[in-house]
């Protein structure tokens, strides 16, 4: 099992900026240090079992994509932490400390910007909550869709379906009018345009490597007045990855993500409320393999 420090609390002697389900973000001088832990959540509950190496996969695959898509939009990355000594330059001598080795490969130094409070979801295939809505209403995010679509079918063209979340709430779908009311028409148009450009580039790149990116989400921030990409990019946590070889229209697809975890949790008596159950070793190992396989297929690199 993953080191408990990485799994539950990265516990660095730095001011905490935000603690997410997977990532812990710290103030590092006037920058931020984002650490991707091995924590995993399901049904909005952080589980007591970690997925070994998951944080490193998420961090490295995001870093890979941030480089690949930099021609479309700038991003918040300053540097990937490949050795802990690189962090010294962001702190005064009085503030420095001995950095834990687990930071290597699973953390990055980024710009501190103003986050746009919208999750920019792009769907190229109809699956998940979009499929559920379509079956009931014939719409996705309240927008009418062509009749006769099947589960997991590729859409005529990718669609932008933004969501937001409030304190203590699940993601809430937003209409384009609501988005414009929140951030203004110019920024709403740019969020939609850039999200679609990023998805289309990533989809084509991954497809050439035998992976279908069915949908994904992006987050953005404002660096002064400049819109930049933040958080993560095209990872198994933020996207639905399918194997092109086994893809079949009309049924649910096997995904390169935490699907073994979800599948296991559906077989046991758990009310999907905290605390979550401990995962069996085989479920952890199977999920680890999926994350590593997605990284290797897309990047062409071994996870060293």
UniProtKB/TrEMBL annotation:
Pfam families xrefs: SAICAR_synt
Domain SAICAR synthetase/ADE2 N-terminal: 17-273
One GO-annotated biological process of the protein: 'de novo' IMP biosynthetic process
Superkingdom per UniProt: Bacteria
Enzyme Commission designation: 6.3.2.6
GO CC, any one term: cytoplasm
CDD domains: SAICAR_synt_Sc
Enzyme class: ligase
Keyword Repeat set for record: no
PROSITE patterns: SAICAR_SYNTHETASE_2 (PS01058)
Entries under PANTHER family matching the protein: PHOSPHORIBOSYLAMINOIMIDAZOLE-SUCCINOCARBOXAMIDE SYNTHASE
Name of the protein this chain belongs to: Phosphoribosylaminoimidazole-succinocarboxamide synthase
Lineage, uppermost ranks: Bacteria, Bacillati, Chloroflexota, Dehalococcoidia, Dehalococcoidales
């Amino acid at each position: 099992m993953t080191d408990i420090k990485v799994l539950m609390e990265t516990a660095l002697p730095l001011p905490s900026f935000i603690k997410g389900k997977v990532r812990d973000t710290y103030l590092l001088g006037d920058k931020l240090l984002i650490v991707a832990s091995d924590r995993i959540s399901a049904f909005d509950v952080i589980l007591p079992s970690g997925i070994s190496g998951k944080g490193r996969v998420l961090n490295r695959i995001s870093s890979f994509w941030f480089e690949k898509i930099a021609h479309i939009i700038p991003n918040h990355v300053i540097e990937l932490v490949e050795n802990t000594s690189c962090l010294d330059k962001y702190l005064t001598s009085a503030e420095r400390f001995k950095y834990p080795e687990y930071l290597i490969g699973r953390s990055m130094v980024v710009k501190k910007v103003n986050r746009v409070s919208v999750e920019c979801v792009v769907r190229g295939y109809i699956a998940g909550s979009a499929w559920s809505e379509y079956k009931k209403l014939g719409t996705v995010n309240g927008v009418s869709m062509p009749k006769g679509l099947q589960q997991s079918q590729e859409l005529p063209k990718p669609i932008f379906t933004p969501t937001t979340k409030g304190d203590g709430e699940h993601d809430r779908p937003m209409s384009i009018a609501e988005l414009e009311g929140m951030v203004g028409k110019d920024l709403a148009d740019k969020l939609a345009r850039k999200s679609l450009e990023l998805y289309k580039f990533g989809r084509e790149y991954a497809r050439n490597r035998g992976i279908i990116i069915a949908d994904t989400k992006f987050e953005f921030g404002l660096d002064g007045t400049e819109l930049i990409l933040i958080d993560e990019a095209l990872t198994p946590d933020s996207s639905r990855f399918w194997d092109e070889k086994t893809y079949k229209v009309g049924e649910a697809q096997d995904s390169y993500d935490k699907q073994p975890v979800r599948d296991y949790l559906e077989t046991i008596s758990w009310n999907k409320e905290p605390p979550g159950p401990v995962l069996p070793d085989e479920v952890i190992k199977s999920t680890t393999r999926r994350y590593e396989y997605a990284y290797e297929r897309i990047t062409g690199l071994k996870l060293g």
